[in-house]
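Contributing new complexes? Match this layout with coenzyme A.
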Amino acid sequence: MTWQEIYQSKLTSAKKAVHLIEDGDTVVVGFGCGEAFGLENALLDSYKDFHDITIVNMLTTGSSPWCGEEMQGHFRLNCLFASASNRNAVSSGIADFTTCHFYEIPELLRERLRPRVALVMLSSPDEHGYCSFGTNVDYIKGVCDYADVILAQVNKHMPRTFGNSIIHVRDLTAIVEQDAPLPQICSVEISDVERQIGKYCASLIHDGDTLQLGIGGIPNAVCQQLWDKKDLGLHSELVGDGVVDLLEAGVINNKKKTANRGRTILGAAFGSDKLNNYINNNPSVEMHPIDYVNNPLFIAQNDNMVSINSCLQVDLLGQIVSDTIGLHQFSAVGGQVDFVRGATMSHGGRSIMAMSSTAKKGTISRIVPLITEGSAITTSRNDVNYVVTEYGIAQLKGKTLKERAAELISIAHPKFRAELALEYQRRFGEMPNKHPQTQQNVG
Ligand code: COA
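Output block (do not edit by hand):
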């Protein structure tokens, strides 16, 4: 049979496709822009036909309907990243949450959660019968190597990407053609605080560095401050729109990379059509499974690797909380520790943790004497190096406990410094040095 005949033989409706799922199955769905909402909606429409199905996903832009009351007994969500629409369900026990470093998620799925079914969003096939995972290779492509049932929503809006990002139509169980615009994760306006943080982060970035930038206001603010840099590289689990202008202008050109020279390496794209159009059919961008992209050993093959991540809280020891607020699961570790460790192992590498000094409209300090009860440490004090706020840069590696605490107090919001200094005194029996060593500290 030609691939076209195979394709035709597998074409079906979304309703028929999802009825290949059996009671008791574990079903992995894509995340971000790669979520096959056409198939998910068909599953939800027929929810009464299904029992005891575990849905596994990561960051979703959707409304997590699996968590609705009427879905109990039919579907149960086990998320690997709490999202806005399912945080409360996780906190109240309606949904489950499994914590795992991003690079280990393919192994977690294969060895422990053992899904029988994958729901994937793919591009239209090329002239050889290969569809592309497009924006999302991450953990989902790996699942397709062993899942018994692979249900594909083929969507002409899904870009075609290079790298390890293809699957042949013969390997799909059922194909549903459904064109739908991808979720658009547009950049929000950058605040003055984020702009200042971006400037401090950029001061730690040198020509020729390879960057990991996450998504959101701070990474975008960093991007805006990189226009005077040269020959930057990009190796990131996911990126948003912020990198596109820099790539198009050649500020990021991957020329000095010591691994995958000349190519941008990503696990997923999490932006709008601006980013999707850039990665579409672009041989300079490679999408790879996350156990490659985020493996600290592979990350470290890039000399001068700089990781920039964000967090919610840091205590005076330099312990970083990024994914919980007290007992509440807010997000997940994602690839934060993967990149902190990879950048630390990289020759000439640096890891940066960037956050605004306060939260909740300036009412609380993110730099605290003690981590909030119930919160989990995301990145240990032994892994952290630079911490950046709008008040400067604290450099922690190699510093004594006193020096670390003093550095952190110096980048706290001024209105919280006296309180933090009292905690310093309680711990160390003296007040902190007014002028910690880091030169960039201001305020
Ligand atoms: N105590 C209580 N609430 C806090 C808080 C704290 N210490 N810190 C932040 N918050 C609140 C904020 O006020 C905000 O609430 P609001 O929207 O009602 O104002 C909310 O929590 C989110 O804070 P914000 O700083 O805007 O978060 P963000 O969207 O920039 O995301 C992380 C920051 C840390 C949650 C996110 O980067 C993350 O999940 N990181 C872990 C994964 C990771 O790093 N992956 C690798 C890169 S993609």
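Reviewers usually confirm one structural detail per submission. For this one: The radius of gyration is 23 Å.
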